[in-house]
Prior knowledge:
Blueprint: H1 19-32, H2 74-85, H3 87-107, E1 113-123, E2 142-155, H4 160-226, H5 232-246, H6 248-266, H7 275-278, H8 289-298, H9 315-318, H10 320-341, E3 346-357, E4 369-378, H11 386-453, H12 458-493
Antiparallel strand pairs: 1-2, 2-3, 3-4
Helix pairs in contact: 2-4, 3-4, 4-5, 4-6, 4-8, 4-10, 4-12, 10-11, 11-12
InterPro entries: MdtP/NodT-like, OMP_efflux
Region (Disordered): 278-297
Protein name: Efflux transporter outer membrane subunit
Amino acid sequence: xxxxxxxxxxxxxxxxxxxxxxxxxxxxxxxxxxxxxxxxxxxxxxxxxxxxxxxxxxxxxxxxxxxxxxxxxxxxxxxxxxxxxxxxxxxxxxxxxxxxxxxxxxxxxxxxxxxxxxxxxxxxxxxxxxxxxxxxxxxxxxxxxxxxxxxxxxxxxxxxxxxxxxxxxxxxxxxxxxxxxxxxxxxxxxxxxxxxxxxxxxxxxxxxxxxxxxxxxxxxxxxxxxxxxxxxxxxxxxxxxxxxxxxxxxxxxxxxxxxxxxxxxxxxxxxxxxxxxxxxxxxxxxxxxxxxxxxxxxxxxxxxxxxxxxxxxxxxxxxxxxxxxxxxxxxxxxxxxxxxxxxxxxxxxxxxxxxxxxxxxxxxxxxxxxxxxxxxxxxxxxxxxxxxxxxxxxxxxxxxxxxxxxxxxxxxxxxxxxxxxxxxxxxxxxxxxxxxxxxxxxxxxxxxxxxxxxxxxxxxxxxxxxxxxxxxxxxxxxxxxxxxxxxxxxxxxxxxxxxxxxxxx
Length: 505
């Protein structure tokens, strides 16, 4: 991939003009109109594959409002509130407003400047000094009043002001895209935290379900010990199993607390302000392990089996970081023209009209009138290399921006490829764990039946229960990992900021 600036490369610095060249250029520019120095920006080409690998995607356009495809009514609500109230987003919006205000200030140089003055002073001059303009020879104080209008306008013959405004426009665009990037990140982070929260709650429910099973087994073992069928070793093992499972719950509760706080921070809420809304009860039945496990898993949002990736060529238009990198390159390219124009004369037209009088009553009379009009030319002769250094710096910045654009596009390509591969791998892993969980549930049922019949010892029950707890936890984590990978894929594709990205100018 490559970022291709205008052929008038920033690396070829323009030589400092001689006086003869300057005067000739000034005459030509005056006769034929203004010119604009420096390379004109050409949008860079993002080199991306012609198509994504067929096994990684479904046909169709990217779902820009992807959070609706996860089948959870609360997730879109959380994302909508986050994109409305998030403090990082409000900061990005403020920076965009600052960029727009700066652009307005810079663009003012394209128009004439008009100022009005009005002053009055009481003064007395020296009797032995220079000529007293009041005519009083310093013998008496006098009052003098001034009123007037003055106007000035720089003739932007070389495009210095136009290039500066072009730079400001590109900086506004970069700030706009940075805000879009924050929107995209906020939506993805909200989905991440919510999916992890539901996975943690599911693990807590499954752990509680297995704890109920372990407690039932411990009570049964105690009864069998009283009947002389079980041993003290079986009783100790059952009690240890109960304590081991119980020890998992506090860490899960702590994790749930952290994730609710994280979501609250994303929504600019105080700690645990969302506890009531997000502490969803996952009612499970200890008597039916299969039904309980399936119910716990169903609380984890899951996206579509196949995600439409769209066309690779559209990635540069959807990804705000690529769009921002292009805007930064545009600003750096325009900066070269502004730096080159500094080598040429600055020509301004000025005019003033006013009134001056010794008596305020005479201010504004015909005899008190004054005026002035004429051009001013400022020609740089010697600055110890300051302008040359500024031009070299502008060229280097453009080269850096071009490299940054190339890296941004390449990073986006990698992120899409890796996220699509992660989705596929996690979905395959989930399928295998789903089968394994069903078999371990059957194995636990058989072990309990055989233990009650006295054909196997309690160690078989413990082994089957450990296996079920392990596979159910792995399946829960796998489903959450698959959903998180889909969120990462949508983020890599640049979907998610379009609905909330509009901002009135």
